[in-house]
Amino acid sequence: MATNERSFVETVWDFFCSLKLTLFLLISLALTSIIGTVLPQGQLPPEYVAQISPTKLQIYSKLGFFDMYHSWWFISLLYIFSLNLVSCSIKRLPHVFKFVSEPTLVLTESARNAYSLRREIAVSGPMEKCRESLAAFLGAEFSSPVVTEHNGELHLFSQKSAWSRLGVYVVHLSILVIFVGAIIGSLSGYKGFVSIVEGTSINTVEGRNGNQIPLGFEVLCEKFSVDFYATGAPKEFRSILTVLENGKPVPGYSQVKVIVNHPLTYKGITFYQSSYGQASEGSEHYITVTPRSGGTPEKIAVHEGAAVTLADGTMVKLLEATQEVREFAPGFSGPAARIEVTRKGATPQTFIIFKDFPEMNAQRGDALIFGYDGTNARMYTGLQVAKDPGVWVVWLGCTLMVVGLYIAFFMSHKRIWLVISKGHARIYGNASKNQAAFEMQFDAIAEKFQKLKI
Amino acid sequence: MTSSMFFNVATIAYLISMIVFFAFLAGRNKTIGFAGSLIAYAGLAVHTLAIGLRWKESYDMGVGHAPMSNLYESIVFFAWTIVLLFAYIDLKYKYRIIGAFVIPFALLGMAWAQLGMNTGIEPLVPALQSNWLLYHVITCFLGYAAFAVACGISIMYLIKAALEGNDSSAQAGGLMSMFPPLKVLDDLNYRAIMIGFPLLTLGIITGAAWANYAWGTYWSWDPKETWSLIVWFVYAAFLHARFTRGWVGKRAAWLSVIGFAATIFCYLGVNLFLSGLHSYGGSKM
User: Fold this and answer.
1) Which residues of B touch A388 (CB under 8 A)?
2) Which of A77, A148, A376, B6 has the smallest count of CB within 10 Å of its CB?
3) ipTM of this complex prediction, to 2 decimal places
4) CATH number for the domain whose boundaries are A103-161+412-451
């Protein structure tokens, strides 16, 4: 029974240590990850729900496909992946440490035959003198050797970058560090969104699932503005923000410019410029109506979606208004409004009036000429809000990973032995990786070695 | 525009280089092989000049930015990195026949960019106005290019392995004698991926750092991010598979080809077929 238990534990241990499991996990993670790039994630768009069959929808939801990167099975794969990483490292690290801390100081006959990099010279001087000059030679050409006497032979062992054998474990550790950072972030951080109308301030933001998160301070949007390139593409959206504590501006956090790629961080909470728009609620738009025949222009104020009746019975309805019309009406720019005008007893007419192109409406040829004078509406700025105390752990993990990869791929543990026997000395070399590059270094050293006169 | 003209010259140079390499493959004349490399290098020089000029032209237009801001510019840069890596491998390992399988990737990219895309210089949208753009794009594309080279080498491996398999004699004659030995191809494949993998890792990390700086999340499982991770998983599997027996040679070559297919999907497929945060890479076709 005891042996059975032991063998079961061993089987489980071997399973988690196996490289086959690693390959299976890497390929499974790669394949399953595709699902979430093809199916919509999170809140499903109604169009999608309308076109998919109910059975499919049900099966996919049951399997967690619509939030697959947080589904129990994907998270489980990541946990098994971590376990696999840890087990493999626990199993192999002691060997590597032993290799580094207890190097092969004495080269046995069989090991000598295994190394293809070797040279030999004849020596005539006494052993002690050979030892001195060859140790000095190795020290100057490669690194200072450890000398061991064994069976009447002298073994000079020297090595470089023994710790480079740890590179791959640094990479493995870095993945775990990144996971820890991600877990810290998900447990004690949050992501949110807030929109602030110019001239107003907020003290809470909306979390991902719609909850209100108090900030503990206030953020005031002093001003918001947008610049455009000549082509009409947006060049810069800019919020001027001030952080308030107890209603007073915080020194150093007053009138801060926040643009895309230049966020504002206060007390570990960061505000990122994300979107903008016009706060249309309750705002008025101004339209001037001028009779073509002359006479006094009539100025009206109207809310979006509302209608106003003029003195002659004409009804003017403001359908929509924008601060920048370029994307809707190519060739035009600036503020504009789309209105519906219904003359008494006539069918409704819909057209756009531009603030910066007042002459356009006259070309319509109608008896009434409409002009858009703008609005008292204010802009709002949309800000992504994030608090993530784990992010520095993630960056630490990333740094470790880059360093580890560099060590693992581009550095190698190089070893050189010099065995002095009666009458001759032999040199042997070995590298843990990139033997070809080491061969060149070894050849250069061996060439000097063969010119030695001892 | 002058840069556009130079890009055309580079494209033609790659076309000629490819034809010369094919002739090298058929004729096995060393001088022809040397000419193929020289023409590719000349193309690379003109290509480099053209990228520099385009960069300068954008400043002359008052919208100055590194020429890596849309699909056209990225394809042109990708082709450049492929030829650059070919030059590195040619000079370092002296197997220039690889050019016959790597230069076509660069040519394909350049021809598509020059013939099928809008080549105009556009101003940067706010999301791209950051120094991270340069670090992120350079690391990603150098990585992609290394994978392209590895894929070309793997295709050579698979062709040679298939032909030598049928021909039971130790060495297949004719074309195959030009190819480096299977062991060398396998090793070169591994070396190219050893260059590509750390670069892809850096590309993903710089992308995450930038995303965190611009949007406040270093990882949001956006399709582009996810696909870059899929590519990373495939090559991580490749690297680990080498430690177990039976995953060198043919299987490794296939894994490298699959890895490059995933890379191409990550680069182009995501922009063309899926929606996400990287939309600027797919527009202006």
Assistant:
1) 216-217
2) A376
3) 0.87
4) 3.30.310
